[in-house]
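Schema walk-through. Below, the input block comes first and the output block second. Nothing else is stored per chain. Lengths vary across the set, and this one has 183 residues.
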Amino acid sequence: MIKNIVSFIAAVITALALSYSFNEDPLVNFKFHTGLYNTAEEEKAVENTLKLFNKNFATLFNTGGDLQSLNYIPAENLIKRRIVQEVNEWTRNNKVLVYDKDVFELEDVELLSPQRATAVAKEVWFLNVQNRKNRSEKSGVKANSIRVRYILGKQDNRWKIIEFEVFGKDDSIPPVQPGGIWS
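--- output ---
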């Protein structure tokens, strides 16, 4: 009987040691999986990250590519690169695409793990094409109503966008598939 108890305790200690050595932050993971994690605080942090992303995304377009604002975009470098490439394309054509956010409503935040989250937002942007040099209008103002699913990762205790998918305002959003950037 004592031998069984000792074996059980040894197995638990081994499991805890392995869990500790293979997890990025074992205490946070433990809290997350046992329901002790502060989800409301993390959901608010995700929302604030998305608002900052959208603000600086629009600023980069509205200024015609002021690269200093890249430092303030909480996103992976590949996301920033895609944005810069699009801004540069407008610049080559002597145009600026002006974004003016009208609506940002967070529909859902799902914490997949302490380091991964998805969020779906309803967004309405007013878009306007302007001449880059004199800022005269090249198009009227158009409302663009969309839904966006953001995939976020947490690094150095800060959330940032890993990827985002844009859908029409009435489109259904397919479920998240496990693996890849999702895990």
